[in-house]
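Page 42, continued from yesterday. The earlier attempt failed because a stray header line got pasted into the input along with the sequence. Redoing it now with the clean sequence only.
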Amino acid sequence: MKTRRINFQVSIALLFAGLILPTLLLVLAYSYRENSRTLLSLSDAAIDRARDDGIALVRQLFDPVAGTMRVVARMAAARPEFFRTEPSRDVLYSALISAPQIDAFYTSFEDGYHRVVTRVDAERRRGNPRFPKAANWHSSFIEAFGAEAVRSRHRTFFDVWPHVIGGYTEPTPQDVRTDPQYRGAKRTRAFFIGDPSINHDTGFPVIQVGYPIVNDHGYIGTVSANITFSVLSQFLVAHRASPNSATLIIDHADRIIAHPNPASGVRLVNGQPAQASLSDLTDPAIAAAVRERAAQHADRLQFTLPNGTEDFALFSAFPPSFKKPWEVLIVGPTDDFIGNLKRTNQNLEVFIALLTLVEVVLIILVARAIANPIEAASDRMDRIGTLDFSEAPAPKSFIREIYHLQNGVRLMSHSLRSFAAFVPVGIIRQLMETGKPLTLSGEARFLSIFFTDLENFSTISEHLTPDELIRQVSTYFEVVTTAVTQESGTIDKFIGDSVMAFWGAPAPVEDHVFRSCVAAVRSAYRMQRLNERWEREGRPRMRVRIGLHSDEVVVGNIGSSDRLSYTVMGDGVNVASRLEGVNKTFHTTICMSDKHYEAVADRVYARPIQHVTVKGREGRFMAYELIGIRNTTDPELIGDERAEKLCAMTVAAMELLIAEEPVEAHEKYGEILMAFPDDPVGKHMYETYGVF
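This time it went through. Structure tokens are written below.
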């Protein structure tokens, strides 16, 4: 089995790639992983910080309010009757404006007496048409429970405190003692935070907080305040965990305590505002967070929305010291935190790809710079092995040893090329393939033999300078040898202006009789074109004559022990030479023996010329003129209807001569001349018919 071998350039490139690329990719992959870990850690820290800030803000909403309520409670405990008078509303107003999140501040007592100061905003004015449009503040009180079944609320309105701009009294069934913060403060005897509820004056959620009023007589009432989450909503918007995240405050029942958009914390039930829950929100990220929390039983989540966006969610409970089961919910796209990382890593991936591409290109260039000269030398060695001495441009190597190798191959190619000019190519190929030295040897083999000569060469050479003669003869030799080698023939030798060649040795050539015919026709055609060009250039024409014969001859290395020539010998060589000379008599170009003709009769256009004899050989044989090749579209092989007709008429004339009917033969050759006035064979035979 033939061993498969890898290309040298590929092997060098793979070696470089195997050494460099893994290290590069390992370093870049490590950087990618560490960047991811660092940024994910930073994102977790940012989310936790947002959670802690939300919890801290909620506490900050209540702590100052609790402090203010503590002070007012102490005042009410010391002087409870004061808060049943109108001047006490100035104290409540001061407490109200002590913090922007306080919407209402009031004192309520065990006998039902209740006094409050509230802010009046656009929502309150829209909610109660009896509120003056210019009112910004409101104060009211409800009497203690007495003999009368219906109590009244007495309202007073201010544009700028304490400037009164109106008021009215209306009956009310309200009993503040039933409010959650009142009962909680009474029960715990401490600051108490109630559950969120809807302020029916504004339609937005509020938290009612209470602080007990206690003196020596025991529990006498509660200081209360309504805290709105508009400030918290504003904070949640301003202090998001990330640009596209949302932070919510929810209770244990998923009801919304605070939302960045205050309107999202309210829903309508039977036309009345009510506190909204997470399930009422249309935000797909929040809905997905709730589902994933239930499914995974985890508080820190990552999930993918239907649109393909990756989001995170964090549910974090308030500390137990807050005494309310509230949670901070932070929801947002992970790209807010790791988007830069993704982009950085994507850029890193692009950088890796580009760097890898650059590395690969550099590796290929370096490998090519090293391998190309060697591959060129190897390719040249392969071509030398097939006796192809063409020189393709090859880069000069910058490596000394490779440079010396290139010079050595070039010198060997030039030497063999020179050697091949004197020795048949087949012999050189055999010598290179076997590696055995040449020795005297010979064998009988059936070959096709080819002879050429130039007409009137001596006369032509007398009129040419040596340089002109060499140029024209060399061109003629080039035309003939190219046609012979194109058909796998072996050039034997050049004898003056003659070329001797053969087919079938040293390597067997399939169908060599026909191939010799093709080579002869090509040579004749190309010499005709060459003569036309020479004539245009003012140079003398050189008309070629070719003889063809096939026979069994001796072929081998013939000569002395120190000087060999690979050639053929025998009667067949003489016959081929004699046939080349027949052309001179009939002014033809290619003559071949009947033996040669019989082997290719159905594939060539050829006609009989005359019986000829060879000196030293008994008997005669028919000489044929080769005109062209049948059934071909190659313009060099000259096969057409004219050749067919000429051959048929000549055969008919020859048959009359052989039948010893010279008169009829003379007439037939006359017909040939009439049909083909320029036919030299017809003319010669018409003039000398019957003479052999």
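Notes: The mean pLDDT is 83.
Reminder to self: strip header lines before submitting.
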